[in-house]
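Listing S7. Sequence submitted for prediction.
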Amino acid sequence: MKQCLFNPRKKAFFFILFCILYLNSTGQNWFQASKRVASDRNMDDYFGRDVAISGAFALVGAPYYNVPVDGGFVLEDAGSAFLYHRDKNGDWIQIQRFVASDKEKKDLFGISVTIGNNYAIVGTVDDSDDANNGNPKDRAGSAYIFENDESGIWKQTQKIVASDRKEYSFFGWSVAISGKYAVIGSVFNPTNSDSDVWMERAGAAYIFEKDESGHWNEIQKIVASDRSSYDEFGYKVAISDNYLVVTAHEESEDENGEYTKLNAGSAYIFERNETGNWSQTQKIVHSDREAYDNFGFSVAIDNTTIVVGAPDKQVHYEGGDWIYRVGAAYIFDRTGDGFWEETKKISTHDYHEYDSFGNSVSISGDYILASSNYNETDTNNENEREHAGAAYLFKREEEGNWNEVQKIVASDRSYCDDFGEAVAISGSNCIVGALKDDKDESGLISITDAGSAYFFQNGTIGLKENKPEKLIYLFPNPTCTRVNIDLGDVNFITEISVRNIHGKLIYTQQFVSSQHISFDLEGPKGLYLVELKSIDNVSSIIKVMKQ
């Protein structure tokens, strides 16, 4: 019979850890705030194929959404994007649904989305018409720009296309925005920046700048310095101020154009100079590159930190076999002399074969959100569900090192949801797309592959004590059931609340001048969050593991 005994080593370890949490107001508590689905969802909408978030606004693409038109008809797979706003209560409310002004069936409007600074851009890779809805070129692609006007209504202000548009270029496969600059990936584009040298599916990206009148103008077409056929440059794009990253996940040479490893992948960094020109300053690859890693399948940038996903990265046990498609992500930082160097490779603590970690990545400040859309286990690495999906949060500590701090999954996770197909993070909020989820927000009505999006919020709250000699002990941790808290000479704790990882309250109790507190932790095995609330209503969050 298994026994749970108090371990003084664990108590001492937690004592040290809690001192840090308590005095420096850290600790992680990202909880699911809401689940959202399309307001009039249908089978195979793939709502959640791409997601974006910026401040109080979020955008979700549904490229296979059938758009209703007059007469009761629909435009099959025309696509839509759904705009959400976070209200004062923290709830995410759908406020608009975007469609293209010249919508047509099979356009796939919503295959890519981005939002920021009161502008949103939606990619439409299968659109064939130019900016004036003419001159058709099959699947040349386009993107649509929406602006938040003074009344709070978002309106389409422009449709943009490539100046040298070609058939099957897939302009709009990826989109990104930062300030007055936008970049659009054209992943199958065959021509160079002068449009006179043809290489099949080499790829390109186009930079647009917003002028004083609010009009977006193409200012530059960029390609890889060592472009080659089938590299798919432009598969993903990311931009932050004067830095731009474009990936080529099927590119095969290293940063010097040597050591060919098929589809190892690469990324290209461009910087804007004082004249406004964007030029390639560096090609980056990962330090442990192997064939078919697909480095560059995802990318994100925030200021001078870049994160690149390689979801097909393998893991090799020493003296053992390869574990395929575990996945990884790589962090690059810009040094003082302007060189971008790999500073960290991140992976998950509970990796499995075919997890595809790094399928989607996002960064905001000191947090990275990276997904494993084929991961099969819950937060406790249990309850397998094929391709249910998961996402992982990493935090940059004071010394600059990145550590995994939390695994998040859908509260109603199920088979083949692909939770993590797309992720985005902004401040203390993040969003995860599950394009093959069937269930509605209540979990009662299922529509095959309609898709959904999950919003998570960082519930970390700080509690600062001016007298560090006042210490608190919580033990044992992990525990089987019983939790003991010794407040020592701290007498300002008035309430304790316990929530599960999904934020559901399972226990609460108030106290008056208590030094020793004990309670039973009800519920299944897993991670729980104990909140200690002070007399002036500020809190500290402590993780407790039930085993």
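Caption to Listing S7: primary sequence and predicted structure tokens for the chain studied. Confidence is low (pLDDT under 50) at residues 1-27, 461-470. The longest strand covers residues 526-534.
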